[in-house]
Specification:
six-stranded antiparallel beta sheet; mainly beta; 265 residues; 18 strands
């Protein structure tokens, strides 16, 4: 899951530049070709990014090209030896999650040198976006029989007891955990990690956290529900929880065992 520190996709406003080259310097520019990234584009993390530069010797001197230096963000530069009067550089990169968790940008600077030491520079800057991922829905079971309680810890919840008069399960957040009670339709409306991050951000900004979830009847054998709650753990992990049913039955001599069923994403 992702962590809460989540933001919606933003476009970084960036511009292409070439150095103000003195007379007799070589020329270089971003490769403008179908399938190659351009300044201001947005590309997805984990997908191939094609980029390139086109360079040539100065018309005035015809001094042959000697080298090309490519620097990508804060990485060490790569130097490519060149010959001749023109060269087209092409490369493919894949930016991983270590680049930036949600969005960011990348700048590639290319500097070409000729045989007499003249040089020219061009840069390419584009935004990086993590494409929305469909949330994976999984089933859960919360079980209680006496002091035996299972299934709630990963959601940051505790089954405090059954009140009032042992009729309803009292589910409360653990220390440092925020609990929210949502509307039933919210379960179907949140389908991607981006939507989930925005949903919980809105909850933090506009809602009061709840002290307990107290809606599951533990006296009836079988009950059905359509309740949606959510938790935010101390480390920012968010759980969207859909409580769908419960089953209670007396197990002699220990008492009534109750299982709460649902799904989470």
């Amino acid at each position: 899951m992702k962590k809460l520190a989540m933001a919606l996709m933003c476009l970084v406003s960036l511009a292409f530049f070439a150095s103000c080259n003195p007379e007799g310097a070589p020329t270089i520019q971003v490769l403008s070709e179908d399938g190659f990234v351009q300044n201001g584009d947005i590309v997805n993390l984990g997908e191939e990014v094609n980029f390139g530069f086109v360079m040539s010797s100065a018309i005035e001197t015809s001094s042959p090209l000697a080298s090309l230096v490519i620097k990508i963000d804060d990485n060490d530069p790569d130097t490519i030896a060149l010959t001749g009067s023109s060269y087209t550089y092409k490369r493919t990169l894949v930016y991983g999650l270590e680049k930036d968790e949600i969005v960011g940008s990348s700048t590639i600077i290319a500097t070409v040198y000729d045989a007499v030491g003249q040089y020219a520079t061009a840069s390419l800057t584009f935004s990086l976006n993590q494409a929305a991922q469909e949330l994976v829905v999984r089933d859960f079971e919360w079980y209680r029989l006496g002091n035996t309680i299972t299934g709630l810890d990963e959601f940051g919840l505790e089954w405090k007891g059954n009140y009032p008069k042992d009729n309803y399960a009292k589910i409360v957040p653990q220390e440092g955990v925020k609990l929210f009670v949502f509307e039933s339709e919210d379960w179907a409306n949140v389908t991607t990690d981006v939507e989930k991050a925005a949903f919980f951000n809105t909850a933090i900004e506009t809602m009061h956290s709840a002290e307990e979830y107290w809606e599951v009847n533990v006296t009836q054998m079988d009950m059905e529900y359509d309740h949606v709650i959510g938790t935010i753990l101390a480390d920012g992990t968010c759980h969207l929880i859909h409580v769908t049913s419960s089953h209670s039955a007396y197990e002699a001599p220990l008492g009534t065992a109750t299982t709460i069923y649902g799904e989470a994403k």
